[in-house]
Write a structure and sequence with these properties.
Blueprint lengths: L1 E8 L3 H14 L6 E8 L3 H11 L3 E6 L34 E5 L3 E3 L4 H5 L7 E8 H4 L13 E11 H7 L1 H11 L8 H9 L4 E2 L23 H9 L3 E3 L16 H11 L16 H14 L6
Parallel strand pairs: 1-2, 1-4, 2-3, 6-8
Antiparallel strand pairs: 4-7, 5-9, 6-7
């Protein structure tokens, strides 16, 4: 059995449904997948709808609302649900040895058996590198980290649960977040990278193809082989809508948006998604500045 964990609140039911439906449609035998949903206020009625969407994958819902403090550091683009991944693994059976975590703003396009079999070596988890800590963690010097330490996106994780429990990583990440809350930009993602300091196994880029990779310019070429970057662009196993250009917010910024909406139509929950709105293109001078900043600073994973 492949154990998959996801977290969502009542406002994210439809995106969660799309991720689950994409998982069903991409697996050779979805009956081998067991999904645990960390719930932040998902109603019984919505749970019933999600079970229908995910069939034949089995779903269990666990209430995490009381496990994440109300004062957990948040921002305009991150709410307390993101810390669910620090708690959800504790709700898996103690004999479970490995779990896959997926964000709910993504679609799965390939057999996650690859992730189940992926060699973690001595690392507690595997993830896709998104940049360097000097691009993601403002306090990297204070932490004694090399600026070239790899920084990963936490939207797709493969976790060794024995190592997770032995090192109490969920609590360690929460502690890091509270200690550095004034300078965090990406919430628990900064926490994971600050705690692990590059101690993760690197998944191929195609297993977390972030929005930046689907744009004409990106800096993944600076830390990955050209062939791997090209494969991730042309043949993604997971398409992740990082940043602000979510499929329900924008119709003209991301070439993967149409695929997301096609899957959404098959969930029967399309009425739970706000009507897409076309984003206004940046003004020429602002676009020039963004391109210059992008080139100078490189690309980091964004959720």
């Amino acid at each position: 059995m492949i154990h998959v964990c996801l977290c969502a609140d009542s406002n994210f039911v439809a995106p969660l449904a799309v991720t689950l439906r994409s998982l069903v449609e991409s697996q050779p035998d979805p009956r081998t997948v067991h999904a645990v949903i960390g719930s932040f206020g998902i109603t019984d009625l919505d749970q019933q709808a999600l079970r229908a969407v995910a069939d034949p994958i089995t779903l269990d819902f666990v209430d995490l609302d009381d496990e994440i403090p109300d004062d957990a550091p948040t921002s305009a683009h991150l709410n307390r649900v993101v810390y669910g991944r620090c708690a959800i693994f504790d709700h898996l059976p103690p004999e479970t040895r490995r779990a896959i975590y997926l964000d709910c703003d993504l679609i799965v396009r390939d057999d996650i058996g690859f992730l189940e079999r992926f060699d973690l070596g001595d690392a507690p988890l595997a993830a896709v590198q998104a940049g360097l800590v000097s691009q993601g963690l403002t306090q990297w010097r204070e932490l004694g980290l090399s600026p070239t330490t790899p920084y990963f996106n936490s939207g797709v994780l493969v976790v060794d649960l024995e190592a997770w429990r032995d090192r109490d990583l969920g609590q360690a990440v929460i502690d890091f977040v509270y200690e550095h809350r004034e300078v965090l930009r990406w919430g628990d993602q900064d926490g994971f990278n600050g705690v692990l300091a590059g101690d993760f196994a690197k998944l191929p880029l195609r297993w977390n193809q972030e929005t930046g990779l689907r744009r004409p310019t990106n800096s993944a070429y600076t830390f990955a082989e050209e062939s791997e970057v090209e494969d991730a662009i042309a043949n993604p196993a997971i398409v992740h809508f990082t940043g602000q250009d979510k499929p329900w917010n924008s119709v003209d910024r991301d070439p993967a948006t149409r695929e997301w909406h096609a899957i959404c139509a098959r969930t029967g929950l399309g009425d739970r998604i706000p009507a897409p709105r076309a984003a206004s293109p940046p003004r020429p001078r602002l676009l020039w500045f963004r391109r210059r900043a992008h080139t100078a600073l490189g690309w980091i994973g964004r959720r």
